[in-house]
Design goal:
Radius of gyration: 23 Å
Shape: globular
CATH architecture of the largest domain: 3-Layer(aba) Sandwich
Number of helices: 13
Number of strands: 19
Structural class: alpha/beta
Strand content: 25-35%
Strand order of the largest sheet: 1-2-6-3-7-17
CATH topology of the largest domain: Aminopeptidase
Distance between the termini: 14 Å
Helix content: 25-40%
Length: 435
């Protein structure tokens, strides 16, 4: 790697301080309040002479774009991140989730992984390139978006509809893949670089019935009906589908000794039954996420609702899946409503950017495996991929499974040294691809 005289200890202190301050800005979505986060990022950039422009979809729902200009000989690179975070249940945390606390060289707080640490990593990359006064062959656009955690309606989708000039790029680096010290029970560093992602399909189940006194049960209890429907959904076994991109990922892992099974649908199906991650890569998934009914413990309710978070494999049509859900429930009195749907094409892995990511990763972690992957979650990258832009989900952090498990959970955190390594890796990747 080219250190170019950079004081990396100083960079680590700066990145840690920025992350703590950023976490302390509560951008829980709902309601979002991303403007406060955008103004913080804009202020940091402004202090280094980089101008940022705010794009507000609503008064407090702001997106931020800031650009380092290159000579235009290559198309731009976008460093993409989102400002909002999921809510935190404070009572279940060891620390205040919005204190931005460093404890024993670990940064704690909501967004420490998803995805304020990556935003700071991208921010520091932009600042370092500016300070180094490197001659860039392409523009680098730092793009921080609102509303990713609620589907992007006020963020990336709003920008897509109103500011298409921000989507002129050759490459995007965003969230969607981390490094893990262990996979399939084998301890060896594996970095996932997502080339695609599953499509979200959020459904609401609604059923109505006759209200009444809880002391007199009857057959038209809407809550009973919904419980029966949910049981059928959770008992529904969907078929295994091995996408070419997942086959390529699993083949690399098998060649590296992390997987013993043959790479075929028949061989992988039994393993998927006991491995949630593999199951999510091979099947359309359904999670029950919300359940609402009733006004009092002795009143039979008149309406019952539940939300389903479905994630579909590439090429699986939402309309067809909804019909399968209805057929599985087998009760026309359970209404199935579509709340949100999105899908994305898959980016190629045979690119200069992917090769650069591989090279820098292996130089940093010599025994690491880099695999093209399909992200089980969805990201803002989808809007770029729909426009034909190659987008990769790659967060250059090597984490323990226990650390990864805190994402969207309690006690979310990132060790300072792993944040520091991520900054060095991303800086080097971007330096090579842009100079």
């Amino acid at each position: 790697m080219s250190d170019a005289g950079i004081d990396w200890d100083g960079v680590t202190r700066e990145a840690t301080d920025l992350l703590c301050r950023y976490i302390a800005i509560d951008t829980s979505n709902p309601p979002g309040n991303e403007r406060a986060g955008a103004e913080f990022l804009a202020g940091v950039l402004r202090d280094d002479g980089i101008a940022g422009e705010t794009y507000a979809s609503e008064p407090e729902r702001a997106n931020l774009a800031a650009r380092l200009h290159g000579d235009g000989s290559k198309r731009p690179l976008v460093l993409l991140n989102h400002i909002d975070v999921v809510p935190a249940e404070r009572d279940f945390w060891q620390v205040d989730p919005f204190a931005g606390l460093v404890k024993e060289r670990v940064v704690w707080g909501r967004g420490a992984l998803d995805m304020k640490s990556m935003a700071v990593t991208e921010l520091m990359t932009l600042l370092l390139l500016k300070r180094q006064r490197l001659r860039l062959t392409r523009d680098i656009l730092f793009l921080a978006c609102a509303d990713e955690e609620q589907g992007g309606i006020r963020g990336i989708d709003w920008l897509d509809a109103n500011h298409p000039e921000l989507f002129d790029a050759e490459y995007v680096i965003n969230e969607g893949g981390f490094g893990s010290t262990e996979m399939f029970g084998v301890k060896r560093p594996v970095f996932s670089c997502s080339v695609g992602e599953k499509g979200p399909l959020w459904l609401r189940l609604v059923t109505h019935g006759a209200p009444g006194h809880g002391s007199v049960p009857h057959s038209d209890n809407c809550l009973d009906r919904l419980v029966r429907a949910l049981y059928k959904i959770q008992s529904w076994r969907r078929p295994v589908t091995l996408l070419p991109e997942v086959r390529a990922m699993l083949t690399r892992l098998r060649e590296a000794g992390l997987l013993d099974e043959e790479i075929s649908e028949a061989a992988l199906a039994p393993l998927a039954n006991h491995n949630p991650l593999l199951s999510a890569l091979l099947t359309d998934t359904v999670s029950t996420t919300e359940f609402h009914s009733g006004v009092k413990s002795n009143v039979i309710p008149s309406v019952a609702e539940a939300s389903l978070d479905c994630r579909l494999l590439s090429g699986h049509e939402p309309a067809a899946f909804i019909e399968q859900v209805k057929a599985t429930i087998g009760d026309p009195r359970v209404e199935v409503e579509q709340m949100m749907e999105s899908h994305t094409p898959i980016s190629p892995a045979e690119t200069e950017m992917f090769r650069t990511i591989e090279a820098v990763t292996r130089e940093t972690v010599p025994d690491a495996i880099v695999v093209p992957a399909i992200a089980t979650g969805f990201t803002d990258s989808r809007a770029f991929r729909r426009r034909g832009v190659t987008a990769y989900g790659f967060v250059p952090c090597l984490l323990e499974p226990a650390e990864l498990a805190t994402m969207h959970g309690n006690d979310e955190r990132i060790p300072v040294e792993k944040l520091a390594t991520g900054v060095r890796m991303l800086y080097e990747i971007v330096r090579r691809i842009c100079t």
